[in-house]
User: What shape does this take?
Amino acid sequence: MSSAGASGGREAVPVPDILHSTLVRADPRDVFALLSSGTGWDTWFTDGSVFEPSVGSPVRLLWRRPGEDGGDVTDEGVVTECVPGERFAFTWGSPPSLVTFTTAAHPEGTRLTVLETGLPQTTDGLARFGDRAPGWGEALTLVRCYAEHGIRLST
Assistant: This one.
């Protein structure tokens, strides 16, 4: 048996933060609106998410996966920061990590950045990093396509 299996993925390993950034050719207020509520997320990414742009709001992210093998995917957390037009953060996962979106004016629109911090420094945390790091890059592409062109790509 491997050491990961013997300890349940809890041995200490270094797990980096996740950081992605992109230019969105849209107004920062519009981009922020897409990120700071369940209704906003549902336009470009999720399917029935519920949360409000206020500190303490419970977060419930929902992705419906129809089909023979598909089941709904959910995750929960809480809004920890909301600075309208600038920064929006929430926790998610178990144990929770922190996701922070920042929007900043750019001559061509908005510089959008996502940073996920606080992943467990364990093999389980490293596996979460491996799942989420490419996912956040995809998410920024999805929000950019919607903000710039009104197109919701399949997820």
Summary: The radius of gyration is 16 Å. The chain has a mean pLDDT of 92. The first helix runs from residue 3 to 7. DSSP finds four helices and six strands in the chain.
